[in-house]
Design goal:
By secondary structure, this protein is of the alpha+beta class. It has 5 helices and 4 strands; from the N terminus they run αββαααββα. The radius of gyration is 17 Å and the shape is globular. The two termini are 33 Å apart. Residues 32-106 form the ArnR1-like winged helix-turn-helix domain. It comes from Candidatus Nitrosocaldus cavascurensis.
Length: 117
C-alpha cells in the first residue's frame, strides 16, 4: 500500500552522532513531517479503499487530536468524506494524490541528482 510512496516521505527517522568529548554520544532525532506530507499520506492510504480512523492513526503514527485536525481540513477541502464508520477519498482527493506523488517524485529525483555532484 505504501510501496509507491517515494522515499522522501517514508524515510523520516535519522540518527546524529556526536563527538565523544560531548556528554551524549548518540542522539536520535525524528524528522517532523509537514502538514502537506501528513495530508498526502492520509490520502494515499485512502486511495486503496475506505479506512477506519483507528487504522489511519496506527499506520501514520499520529495521535487522535492530530488526525482529527487533518481529517477536518481534508473534508473541508472536499478531498475526503467522513461517515460514521469509514473515511473515503473523493475524486478530487484522487486527483490531488496523483499531482502530489508526481511532485514528490520530482523533488526526490532532484535530491538524488544533487548528491551526485
Amino acid at each position: 500500500m505504501l510501496d509507491d510512496i517515494p522515499a522522501i516521505i517514508v524515510d523520516y527517522a535519522y540518527v546524529i552522532h556526536i563527538k565523544p568529548k560531548y556528554k551524549y554520544h548518540l542522539i536520535s532525532r525524528v524528522y517532523r513531517r509537514t502538514s502537506t506530507e501528513i495530508s498526502g499520506l492520509i490520502l494515499m492510504l485512502l486511495k486503496d479503499g475506505a479506512q477506519k480512523k483507528s487504522s489511519i492513526q496506527k499506520r501514520l503514527n499520529v495521535d487522535n487530536r492530530t488526525l482529527n485536525r487533518y481529517l477536518d481540513i481534508l473534508a473541508k477541502q472536499g478531498l475526503i468524506t467522513i461517515s460514521d464508520k469509514h473515511i473515503e477519498i473523493t475524486e478530487k482527493g484522487v486527483y490531488f494524490t496523483e499531482i502530489y506523488k508526481e511532485l514528490i517524485r520530482l523533488l526526490d529525483k532532484n535530491r538524488i541528482s544533487s548528491r551526485k555532484r
